Each structure stands twice: as structure tokens, then as C-alpha cells.
Amino acid sequence: MICEKPITIHDLVDVVVTVLDARDPYTFAHSWRVAELSEMMAERIGPRKEWVERIHVAAHLHDIGKIGVPDYVLHKDGTLSPDEFAVMKTHPVIGHSIVSKLAVLEDISLYIRHHHERVDGKGYPDGLSGNAIPMGARIIAVADTFDAVTSHRSYRPARSKEQAFEVISACMGTQLCEECMECLLSMKDEIGPILENVNAEVDLAVREGRIGRTIKSFL
Ligand SMILES: [Fe+2]
Ligand SMILES: [Fe+2]
After folding, report:
1. DSSP H helical segments within the chain, as ranges?
2. pTM of the full predicted structure?
3. What does the pLDDT look like over 105-144, one tens digit per residue?
4. 147 CA to centre of ligand 2 in angstroms
5. What CATH number is given for 9-194 in this structure?
6. How far is the CA of 14 from the centre of ligand 2 (A)?
7. What single DSSP character describes residue 23?
8. Is residue 90 pLDDT above 90, yes or no?
9. What is 122-137 written as a DSSP string?
10. How far is the CA of 140 from the centre of ligand 2 (A)?
11. What spacing in Å lies between the alpha carbon of 67 and ligand 2's midpoint?
12. Distance 63 CA to ligand 2 centre (A)
């Protein structure tokens, strides 16, 4: 039987997320937390609901290019060698090339491409600096860094939220956008309960086999 219901952008985004979930469970939970933090920051920085929602989607997809990173790098226990790190650094460009196939996701594909740029121009892939980096990418970079620091990885233990604020405050104006950092710092008291909520939802989604059905239905 052929289903005549039209395929929506939301359906397609869900499929792409599901593929990465299957490949890398850490990225699944990480992307969900980064999406919630990015949305909260975007709400404070820009009032347009549609823009906030697109940043939420971009944050869910920000590491989607890791689909193209080989297992020996993606799943390595321990610190990456310089050559392995160079391979890992291809993921924003791979993510951009996947998502930009859909013209309606062009802005989102650029937030993905630029989420590892640094405001001092020393990031990758294009070495953009300051306001040349789209605001969506700067927001995701702050949320991404905060979540990476507070997550347990095989090569280092998780740090507390307070330690994470210290670590990333030191990156203000060099790696991370000052406006976005100040926004995150202004949310200090709300972050803990929100992330606990997300982690509980992720656990439930995994138990119920709903991995991948994480994008809100606004597209
Ligand atoms: Fe990334
Ligand atoms: Fe990430």
C-alpha cells in the first residue's frame, strides 16, 4: 500500500537524527541537551519565535556530520592524535553538505557549518571571526562547550557546572561570543533543573525505543 501523506521537512530531519542516534548514542543525548540550552539562550537573545525554533533544530543537528567520521576516530577511547583530530574536524563541513541539500534549511546548514568557529578567528572550518560567525552558530558553540565540559568522557571525568562556568568564562572573547556567554551566565540557576529534565527524557526515550523522535513538530 502506498501512503499518500506528504513527507514533511520534520519527517526528514527526524530520519537524519535517527541515523546518527544509531551510530553514536553519546551524540544523541549531547545534541538533545545542546538543543535545549541553545533554545533557552536564543529566546533571550532574539525575540522571533521562528528564529528560536530554527536554532533549536540546528542544535539538534549540529554534530550530524559525525556520520561521516570513521569508527576508529568517533569511538576511540582516549585523546585523539593530531591526525585523528584532523579527521574529526571535518564533521561541520560534512554536516553542512548533508543539510544544505534541502534549500529550506540553508540557515540551519550554516549554523552547523560554523559551530566550531572561534570569535578570534582561530576556529574551523573557515576561520570566521566575530560577527561574521552567524549568531545561531555562536549560540550553539557556547551550549556545546558547556555540555562537553559537564559531560563524562572516556578521557576525562565530567566537571561540575560551577567549574564549567569558570572554564568557559576564560574563553570569553577568544573562543566564545561574549554576548552568548553572558546570556548563559544569566541562566545559571535554571540550567541544572533543565538538564536533569532532558537527561530523564533521554533515558525514557531510549527505554521506549523513541530514539530519533526528538525534534519538536514545528517544521
Ligand atoms: Fe561539533
Ligand atoms: Fe557537539
Report:
1. 9-23, 25-45, 49-61, 71-74, 82-88, 91-99, 106-113, 135-150, 161-169, 178-186, 188-207
2. 0.88
3. 999 999 999 999 999 999 999 999 999 999 999 999 999 9
4. 8
5. 1.10.3210.10
6. 18
7. H
8. yes
9. --SSS---GGGS-HHH
10. 8
11. 13
12. 5
- Concatenating the DSSP letter of every residue in 74-92 gives HT-SSPPPHHHHHHHTTHH
- Nearest ligand, CA 65: 1
Q: 153: which strand partners?
A: 156
Per-residue pLDDT reduced to its tens digit, 33-53: 999 999 999 999 987 999 998
The residues spanned by each domain of the chain are 9-194
Amino acid at the residue 130: G
The C-alpha atoms of residue 30 and residue 217 are separated, in whole angstroms, by 20
Cell of 13: 530531519
Q: Is the pLDDT at 183 greater than 70, yes or no?
A: yes
Which residues lie near ion ligand 2 (Cβ < 5 Å)? Answer: 63, 144
Q: How far is the CA of 195 from the centre of ligand 1 (A)?
A: 19
Residue 63, all three cell numbers: 554534530
Residue 62: CB atoms within 10 Å:
32
